[in-house]
Amino acid sequence: MAQVVCITGAGAGVGRATVAEFARNGWDVALLSRDPGRLEEAAAEVRRHGGRALPIPTDVADAEAVFAAADRIEAELGPIDVWINVAMATVFAPVDKLTPEEVARGTAVTYLGQVHGMMAALRHMRPRNRGTIVNVGSALAYRSVPLQSIYCGAKFAVRGFTDSLRSELLHDRINVNLCMVHLPAMNTPQFDWALNKMGHKAQPVPPVFQPEVAAREIHWAALHPRRQTWVGWPTVKAIVAGRLMPGLVDRYLASAGYSGQLTSETVPTTQSGNLFQPVPGHFGAHGRFDSVARPRSWEVFTSHHRTALWATLGIAALFGLHQLAKRLDI
Questions:
Q1: In this structure, is residue 79 part of a structural domain?
Q2: What is the mean pLDDT of residues 219-246?
């Protein structure tokens, strides 16, 4: 019997690519997202691969809707083996142009949406003492950038909640795996449908990767659980630089963080975006950056790789201090 995976944000972007990746590998897929039409399109792809698909229109900010979806999945597809939290929302704007309602909504989707997913999955996984939850994070969960304070704050919060829950599961000896996969810039539709108050079209900061890169690593993490996985060298650079030189990175982003996220193409500041309601249209996994997006990444850092990285940096720092001490004759 095929294994069952639930994927939030399944209608487009990384979620849509993840649906296709699991379908190609023979899984039955439950799909959660707000837009029924895009969910049906994604579900049809699962069925073409011979799997069972259960599309459930769901706003992940609504806890009861997520809990009800989990109950329905268990009843119609069977026990949930893997739950993947992908759904997100963002706003491109400086803080002084945000409203409290926009902050609350973006946080409810990107942060509470993952919390609701974890809680819903655990309701079923804890009694069975098995299962895997994969939370999709970002380099921006470690190193914030200007113009995306809502998204960055939410991703930081997901990381904190996940770490707390992981310790609780270890304390209770619950055999449920809890993983985070942190991604670089991805070529998804979010840069066309996100609420944008900047007057220019948004873009991912290069280098940009295709959503299938993320999907493959999410699938790998579901089968080979690790505490965290960093995907792509840009993710590693952002995280390491933010830890070693946070002040310098602050100043770099102050000068380059605006232009790096915006194109010269203008866009009306009155567009509503997808924050409160789905944007209609046949959006898929890819955004408009196919010409520059990379189809693969050779750099994937798991917990073991990061331990080696920090050890190497530590040894290099000690060696540098030793050489400095010799020059100063200390």
A1: yes
A2: 92
Residue type, 178: L
Q: For residues 281-294, give the mean pLDDT.
A: 94
Catalytic, 258? Answer no
DSSP letters, 163-183, are HHHHHHHHHTT---EEEEEEE
At position 297, the amino acid (one-letter code) is: S
Sign of CA dihedral 97, 283, 11, 56: positive
> For residue 225, what are the domain limits?
4-298
Residues across the chain: 330
pLDDT grade for 2, boundaries at 50, 70 and 90: confident
67 φ, ψ (degrees, to nearest 5): -60, -40
291 lies in some domain: yes
- Inform me whether the pLDDT recorded for 62 exceeds 70: yes
In-domain check, residue 224: yes
Asked if residue 328 is part of any domain, the answer here is: no
pLDDT for 269 = 78
Scanning the chain, the segments in alpha helix (DSSP H) are 13-24, 36-48, 63-76, 100-107, 113-128, 149-171, 190-193, 211-223, 233-244, 246-256, 303-327
Q: What is the CATH number of the domain that holds 258?
A: 3.40.50.720
Task: Tally the domains of the chain.
Answer: 1
Check if the beta carbon of residue 22 is closer than 8 Å to that of residue 3. no
pLDDT band for 267, please (50, 70, 90 cuts).
confident
Q: Give the lowest-confidence range in 37-51, 127-141, 148-162, 293-307.
A: 293-307
142, 151, 252, 258: the catalytic one is: 151
